[in-house]
Amino acid sequence: MIIANPIYDTVFKQLLSNNEVAHIFISTILQENVVEVAPKPFEIIFDKEGKEIDQSISVAIFQLDFVATIKTESGELKKVFIEIQKTRKFINHLRFRNYNRRLNITDEDVYDAGGNKKESLPIIKIYLFGFELKNIKAPAIKVGHEIIDLITQKIITVKDEFIEKLNQGCYVVQISRIDGKLQTKLEKLLTFFEQDYFVDETGDIKEYNYPIDDADINLVADALRLAYTDQDSRRRMEAERESFRVFNLAVEEESKGIKEKLVEKDKIIEEKERALELERKAREDADNALAQSLREIAELKAKLKG
After folding, report:
1. What is the distance between the terminal CA atoms of the chain, rounded to a whole angstrom?
2. pLDDT in tens, 19-49
3. pTM score
4. 28 and 215 in contact (C-beta within 8 Å)?
5. Which sign does the torsion angle of CA 208, 27, 10, 169 carry?
């Protein structure tokens, strides 16, 4: 079976625009009894002074929002706000936190344009990272008071700086650590995001040859197969690939500029250290010369007295 690569924003958006697939995706990752999901577009949010809070999304971070209704073990129905964020490249954790800080608005801060307080729901974040966490090998984890491996349900005791900077109550998928195992429904879902078995060098489409024995997983496969056959989707993927290429070039240029500035800074520091060393040596030579002069004067005085 040939499917479109869901790491592309355009494919991921098309995939989760199917409400059944969105329900499968969210409930499988949360491992909760999700009875309903509804997409929620970005809204313009104002603070108390009526100043608009910027919620623009960069090329680096792609976000989709949903409102989900979860049925608890006690039978209670609760609504939660689901933020799904996908990034293909590593992002400095400070920039990542700053981006999310603009979205984490409390009840006291959220007002509409007329100054009326807006309803706020509990937020659950799902992160799909295209980069690897340094110390955590599990492909999917739940971050709370403890870090739980969502595949084995075991507690992860190792620390990771990036994870420690994230808010509790989030779920993290490491796309590059997906290993093609099929023991659980979550593992089966994640195989679609595995970055292997590409048909060509573009990475737009891939072969999916894993056996499918679950109706929900088959629905996801059908949606990705449809995205592959849809010409508009293919054109959007090509445009996104080009945008990402340009973005990577810009990042490389920025990194190159930073490296050049660091090299220049190191040269300036070396020159200053060299100048300070010469100055120290000159002072040392002057002190030695003065000491020698004082010794000679003392010896001369001694001779005169004798």
Report:
1. 111
2. 999 999 999 999 999 999 999 875 444 444 4
3. 0.71
4. no
5. negative
